[in-house]
Amino acid sequence: MRVFFNELVKNKVLFLMILPALLFFIVFSYIPMVGIYYAFTNFSFDGGLFGSPFVGLQNFKFLFESGALYNLTKNTVLYNLAFIFVGNILQLVCAVFLSEMAGKYFKKATQSIMFLPFFISFVLIGAFVYNLFNFETGAVNTLLRELGLQPYDFYLHTAPWKYIIVFFNVWKGLGYGTVIYLAAIMGISDEYHEAAKIDGANIFKRIRYITLPLLRPTFILLILLSLGGILKGQFDLFWQIVGNNGMLYDATDIIDTYVYRSLAINFDIGMGTAAGLFQSFFGFVLVVTVNWIVRKVQKDYALF
Amino acid sequence: MKKRLFKLLSICMTVAMLTAMLSACGGSGGSGSGSSEEGKGTDSSSKETAATTDDGKPDTSKKVVLNWYLLGDAHADTPKVVAEWNKMLEQDLNTTVKLNFTTWNDWQTKYNLLLASGEKVDMLFASSWADFFKYSKQGAFLDLTELLPKYAPDTWKEVPEQDWKDVSVGGKILAVPSTYPEYTPDGLVYREDWREELNVPEITDLDSIEKYLEAVKTVKKVTPIKGKAWNEVNTLFHSYYDFKNIGGDSGVIVAKSYDTPRDVVAYPFTTEFEEWAKRMKTWADKGFWTSNTLSIQQESGDFIKTGTGAVYWRNAPGASGFISDIEKNYKQIKKMGYFPFTRFHNYAVPNLGINNGMAIPKNSENPERSLMVLEKLRNDPKYYNLMTYGIEGENYTLDDKGEITSPPEGKDPKKGYSIASWGWRYSKNDHPSSSRWAGEDELIAEFKAESKPEIFSPILMDYQPVKSQLAAVNQVYQQFGMPLMMGLVPDVDKAIENYRNKLKAAGVDEVLAYVQKEVNAYADEKGLK
Amino acid sequence: MRAERSTIVFYIMGYIVISVLTLLCLLPFWLIISGSLSAEDDIIRDGFQLVPQHFSFDAYKAVFSNPMQIFKAYEVTIGLTLAGTALGLFFTSMAGYVLSRKDFKYRDKLAFFIYFTTLFSGGLIPWYIMIVNYLNWKDSYMALLVPSLLSAWNIILMKNFMKSIPDSIVESAKIDGAGEFTIYRRLILPLSTPGLATIGLFLGLAYWNDWFSANIFITTESKYPLQFLLYKILASAAVLKTNIAGNLGADFKAPAETLKMAVAIVVTGPIIFLYPFVQRYFVKGLTIGAVKG
């Protein structure tokens, strides 16, 4: 305690500077966390949060009893890993190219255009997917027919959908993520590159030995940040593309869509909260573990 | 200087944030129980203060501002209409109402937030299809039993006894139902002009539907149900076999027919379902709908309008609206037809009154005044017309047949006024539209002649003892049941077996036992067979 | 300076990769523009087309049917975006700076305290109760402004950007007798422009795109921000189409097709104006060397 007060006095300005942020999270995140208790009650408006009867883990039962949880967790984790890694690597590649390339207007224009998909709603993405892949009039099948090939009914097969979904997710986030890496590259001092140039290093070498290593903390940070949400899915993305098509669920069902279907007919605050808590807990354990490992290897890269 | 400014600023910030936080902490200490007690407190106290004046009329000497919520969106002219309304209310009841709307897309979220947070809402649109019974069971609404005779005497007298019973949960009247007997059976809208042109028999049963679809597909080369075909097929299935949903739920548990309410089954285990799934497989293979029909979000009605679809599921009033829209705006379509599914078994069932209604949430501060406003709204034609049809001359005109033209001749179509006014609907004051589909009156007459009372919707179930099984069953139903129903599986027999196994594993038997128990209790009470 | 062979190879690769990706991003957008200018029936019948079969401005007319309202909504959104971005950037960068200071003892604990909020949440209802019942912000601009000011993501990203600033700068400034806030304002902020521009962009986008807070908190029409107004226009178009008034079932369907696309175009406005402005700060040279020299 005394250490803390000494620290407080010594760094009082620093404490003051971070205080607004801490208060913000207390008011808008920590206090509302009392709502987690909903997961353990049978909610009624009569009782409210604390007056409703306590039911223990009963609200979690629907997740575990169905036997689908393993497949759901696997799907959710794999999709998110694909989103995280494919997305980050592509964003990094774009950022590196854009930072090194000449042609001011080309760069500016392409950067702006890459940001456009961010504004396209999932509803419209769903419409694109339909227009591309439907059996009767979809662009892909029209092309196949014109080439004299056998048309392929995407909506009856599970195989292509993982690629389609990953593609559209990565596509939507491309511009957004690229900006982060671009900003990080801009933080790298020119001196390093100048020195390397004088030493005769070509552009590939400079990227390999200067830019990439210096981007590593950012890359690891972004991965760590995303891992916490590894069990939380992009509900809208899956819903708009797959909808009610049970035929595709083996490959496309994630926890969020599953919970939505389970509760769509008879919504229950307790069960909804319970599902969210399960997702949070899983992410929490994962992040703390991975962060611990990262910390062992390279303290500076750790998230906390 | 700047440093000092910053210090001052940060201190101000800190103080502000801290006070906000402390007050929040203080409140949240007993948040749940506290707020509900507050609610109860205001109930009893307001009941005491709301004394009556000498002539027996409720005292309105205190000016009151009420907070109302309706489902859906406002019309562009709603502010004008509400301003006019408030002028009248201020004069008659010394009251004004702030009329809020939930918007259509997220009304469920908003209902949950409004009711769970204990906001002071004095009136809310309520309906069996907007979870009225669920919210009632969870204690979201105020008991109106004692308030009604005093503050809404006309309504109290004029709403039929049965309708009050339908909105009673645990002996408490929790809503004011609309009084507008109405039939909303499912059915199919189809292109009558094509049927005549293709020379297929009139649509009277399942075989003639199949012949029509087949002709459309093979001769016209049009996919008959091009959008999402789920509703078309699912309602057709239920109506064809007379499988009745219980308690308004659309899951797998049904009563086997209207005449045998106690015969409750999970329909996927019936031979009827097997037969149906096989037939639908042939329909899907023939291309009556597309293979992505469960993914697509578009209504099949849209395709009819562009000449690329031939069938659309609508309930009877919906069909009437759809057909009159086509008659007005799509002249290239010569003639539409409608086949109500009531014709499979030759009876129709009217809606419950609470298909639309108004309820007062627990935390209302002025339930008495709110009821008085509703009383006016239902019974005074001046109020009723204003809030239902808008401003006369501007949004509608009324002819001497008592029919409404909205918007008035020659006005911008956007002037046609419509909000979710169904909660106070009262047939006595309601006016039919002059541009309604000509077939509508005939249909209504047909339904009235074969009317049987609604016995399945009022069975109230909250599934509390089996809610996790229910969630699992609903999930299985969507994942495996829907593709089967749509004939999209490669091997029907295998798929049915798999579906049944999954349902068993999910606990369908326990859900069935629960429903059976509730149905028996209900049937005993009502003296049903 | 003569370009090396490897540089040329690199450029060719770069142009190919970037051009392909750009095309993939541009084509759908083109289709949306074309769709927004098409007749509704064409879209329903034939789907997306590169060039509209029949030009129609109906969708845009529907969006701008009440120009005064849209104008007002733009005002609200622009005001919120500016205020939110400025305030958010101020608090985010302060917090990020404190967390980036390696000599600050509790930085890991505080970073965890902040990050933890992204993992667990009490859900929508308690958050709503906090804002409506305790802070009393129902139907207030505060409810749109304050709850989105800070995000753990932004603070941690900010911290990461600032970490690349050498400690020696802070050390030498301290020796010169500069206070902590002065160091932050005079030295750290100018050195962090790419990071500030990035976070500012994200904040701006978040405020610009936010319709959800208005959806649950705002009940007065004149306070609607643009996104929420558009959202409502879409929703009511859907209702008009279903003839809901004559149809008392709860089947509400997706909005009219071309309107969806016109709305997508209208909301994309900011990126066209804002992004080039932000790009000015993505320039090398605003780095350590420049300040030292």
TrEMBL record, chain A:
Similarity comment: Belongs to the binding-protein-dependent transport system permease family.
Keywords in alphabetical order: Cell membrane, Membrane, Transmembrane, Transmembrane helix, Transport
Source species, domain of life: Bacteria
PROSITE patterns: ABC_TM1
Membrane topology reported for the UniProt record: Multi-pass membrane protein
Protein name: ABC transporter permease subunit
Family matches, as InterPro entries: MetI-like, MetI-like_sf, UgpAE/MalFG_permease
The keyword Transmembrane helix is annotated on this UniProt entry: yes
Residues annotated as domain ABC transmembrane type-1: 73-290
PANTHER family: BLL4140 PROTEIN
Signal peptide (UniProt feature, chain positions): none
Pfam families from the UniProt entry: BPD_transp_1 (PF00528)
Residue spans crossing the bilayer: 12-40, 77-101, 113-133, 163-188, 209-231, 269-294
Electron transport listed as a keyword: no
Cellular localisation: Cell membrane
Main location: membrane
